[in-house]
């Protein structure tokens, strides 16, 4: 590990909800590359700016300018730079700036009734200022498997729901392991998010900003960028297949002419 990281980078600890946190990580990577010459660096950034500021805004533009400058430094230091993301981002608020939310647990507690099922929001984490623990995807776990068709029909008919899958279909279409799925999986449309029970989501941390978040199929497209051209084998493979963000490691290590 690296001791005294702040001293090593020469910067104070950034706030979690700031552009500076991601820039700090990139600056740490630059420092490591300059002084220790590692064979591989994996630098994971936050998505606070993308949650809080729309593309083209001054805040977003300034952030991307600063990121791009650091990517250039990494390349100048001899690194092959590979960039991708785990998801896109979209505006999920109405014309008045209020989040478009389906409180699915509350709906299902009314019909078919409390105790029938439990709605789980995978986006839930400690940093609710990003998204209020709201996204475009949830899983439903049933108390009784016999209720699956009934709950499926109810959820399918809710405005703002784009698709409902059984566990088997979700695993197949989303390329996920079946044993990690609930009984049903639900995705919202482009402008809607799905929550559990309204009382369990604290939206005050958004501080009046429009809700920008992810999880639906509309945020599935992400960048896949390498700083060196692909060799023939991987160039042909990229043309013939839909790239997945997880493949960025293989392409960076084996797929370029460098």
UniProtKB/TrEMBL annotation:
Signal peptide interval: none
What is an example of a Pfam family matching this protein? Phosphodiest
Matching InterPro entries, A to Z? Alkaline_phosphatase_core_sf, Phosphodiest/P_Trfase, Phosphonoacetate_hydro_insert
Q: What is this protein called?
A: Phosphonoacetate hydrolase
The organism encoding this protein is: marine metagenome
